[in-house]
């Protein structure tokens, strides 16, 4: 007999038609970013978690990171969590510029040992992240009492605990924020992960004398774009950061030299050849 660790195919096969219909509806309505389906999910998932609100973000890691940012956690701060978790819990703390401070787990529940938390609190501590490991919730009453006493936030890492309960209260509903993951292998998994293959959304080349180059191409009937003419640190909204011209020499050089050639799935081979010919002529 073979027993796979997990069998995602067996999970989605019985509901495959429903999934296909739902995906088709999303495509038909072009609801690719945000929109009614995400809003419905956010409403339903909030109700499932006994919460008033839920917000869809990119991943469980991002949820933890954004929760900490929203609570004002930043450089120099400390956040208490456990060493026995997926590394994303600690990464989210590091992404904020803060430092993870580890507290050991309780050998009975394998979640944070609440009796050890106060010994780890310093003047820099801002928050506690209990991890509801393997689907079992941490000792939330004690954790919330400690947090209240010391003025700390509590962010529940509920990435493995969709639907888990503590004294009939849902995972994610007890702390200031609860974070969930929909990685394919989680309790409620979604489809897919991507992260490194160039897809040429923009086909940009670098030329030394851009305005002259673009004028020649334009005369030949080839329209180009620039992505992007002004690096962000030179734009009005961010001059307050105090980064003068010359702070980022490579980005600034690229901003002067990048030219985006025509790029679209319907570009014909003849058009590609014509553009290449015009580019060579201009150079
Ligand atoms: C999976 C997991 C995360 C990260 O979730 P992603 O969606 O993969 O970013 C964070 N914490 C714990 C405990 C997890 O199991």
**Amount of helix:** 25-40%
Low-pLDDT parts are: none
Distance between the termini: 67 Å
The helix-strand sequence is: HHHHEHEEHEEEEEHHEH
Overall spatial form: extended
In round numbers, the mean pLDDT is 92
Characteristics:
single chain, 283 residues, alpha/beta, 5-stranded parallel β-sheet, two-stranded antiparallel ribbon, 9 strands, 33% helix, extended, binds pyridoxal-5'-phosphate
Describe the structure.
This protein starts with 7 loop residues before the first helix and ends with a helix. The mean pLDDT is 92. With 283 residues, it is of the alpha/beta class. Helix 4 (60-70) packs parallel to helix 5 (88-95). The protein has helices spanning 8-12, 16-28, 36-48, 60-70, 88-95, 140-150, 210-219, 249-257, 269-282; strands at 78-81, 99-102, 125-128, 153-157, 165-166, 169-170, 177-179, 203-206, 258-261. The strands form 3 sheets. Strands 2-1-3-4-7 form a 5-stranded parallel sheet, with helices on both faces.
Give a topology summary.
Layout: H1 8-12, H2 16-28, H3 36-48, H4 60-70, E1 78-81, H5 88-95, E2 99-102, E3 125-128, H6 140-150, E4 153-157, E5 165-166, E6 169-170, E7 177-179, E8 203-206, H7 210-219, H8 249-257, E9 258-261, H9 269-282
Parallel strand pairs: 1-2, 1-3, 3-4, 4-7
Antiparallel strand pairs: 5-6, 8-9
Helix pairs in contact: 4-5
Bound molecules: pyridoxal-5'-phosphate.
């Amino acid at each position: 007999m073979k027993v796979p660790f997990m069998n995602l195919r067996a999970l989605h096969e019985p509901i495959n038609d429903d999934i296909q219909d739902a995906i088709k509806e999303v495509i038909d309505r072009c609801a690719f970013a945000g929109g009614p389906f995400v809003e419905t999910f956010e409403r339903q998932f909030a109700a499932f978690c006994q919460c008033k609100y839920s917000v869809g973000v990119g991943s469980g890691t991002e949820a933890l990171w954004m929760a900490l940012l929203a609570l004002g956690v930043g450089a120099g701060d400390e956040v208490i969590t456990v060493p026995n978790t997926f590394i994303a819990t600690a990464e989210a703390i590091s992404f904020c510029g803060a430092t993870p401070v580890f507290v050991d787990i309780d050998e009975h529940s394998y979640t944070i040992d609440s009796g050890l938390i106060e010994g780890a609190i310093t003047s820099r501590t801002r928050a506690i992240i209990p991890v509801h490991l393997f689907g079992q919730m941490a000792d939330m009453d004690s954790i919330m009492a400690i947090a209240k006493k010391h003025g700390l936030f509590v962010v529940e890492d509920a990435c493995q605990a969709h639907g888990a309960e503590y004294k009939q209260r849902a995972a994610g509903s007890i702390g200031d924020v609860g974070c969930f993951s929909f990685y394919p292998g989680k309790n409620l998994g979604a489809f897919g992960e991507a992260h490194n293959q160039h897809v040429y959304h923009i086909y940009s080349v670098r030329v030394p004398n851009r305005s002259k180059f673009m004028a020649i191409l334009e005369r030949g009937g080839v329209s180009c774009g620039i992505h992007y003419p002004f690096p962000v640190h030179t734009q009005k909204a961010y001059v307050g950061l105090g980064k003068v011209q010359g702070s980022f020499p490579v980005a600034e050089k690229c901003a002067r030299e990048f030219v985006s050639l025509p790029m679209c799935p319907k570009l014909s081979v003849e058009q590609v050849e014509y553009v290449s010919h015009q580019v060579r002529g201009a150079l």
